[in-house]
Amino acid sequence: LAGLRTGKEKTIVSPKVCPACGSALVQGEDEVALVCRNRECFARLRERFVFAVGKNGLDIEGMGEKTIDQLMDAKLLQNIASFFTLKKSDFLGLEGFAELSAEKLVKSVNGRRKISLHIFLASLGISHVGKETALRLADNFKTLERLLSASEQELVRVEDIGEIVAHSIVDYFKQPSHIKELDDLKGAGVLVLSHTPKKGGKLSGKTFVLTGTMSSLTRDEARMKIQGLGGRVSGSVSK
Fold this sequence. Notes:
mainly alpha, two-stranded parallel sheet, two-stranded antiparallel sheet, 11 helices, single chain
């Protein structure tokens, strides 16, 4: 690398505050990223909404980033439950929407009022909880109510759930804003379905780690096929 230096290099100075809200940035223990902890930060809320309704979350077809930006500017989104209280008239007030497109998006939202537990958990954006961890939690606790009452000690007994992840989950569900959000979701008619673990199947008892790319499948498609046949997908090679 020494041969690539020109003498014009500049020292990188890490930012101290969030560029969106001005709150102090913090760095978690054993983490590299600087994070804004302000739960009311507009940029954090935006990314949370984008993630929640995207392919890795509730997968609400047609609810793109531009629409979310418009809904936030119109102050129509307070939390994830807000998506399920939107009416056709709300969309008609946004740029680019007509009768047909507004009806189509409302129909798309309504089609996600019944949601599988593991998909719901993945959509919340809980720190350290991705699709695989969400599925592991659903396999073990079966219902949202049982998970909400779980202690950190109970959580760490779940395979692949360590102390950091357990603490993150418990901390998430004790936040007043998240408790309100769950109440609002229930009030909006969203039903989180009980989970029934798949049993048997040709791949039952086998664990797979997906790496690289495949010509005929995305990783998510491959993961779903494996799990549909009773197999387990892990994020890394275990002992």
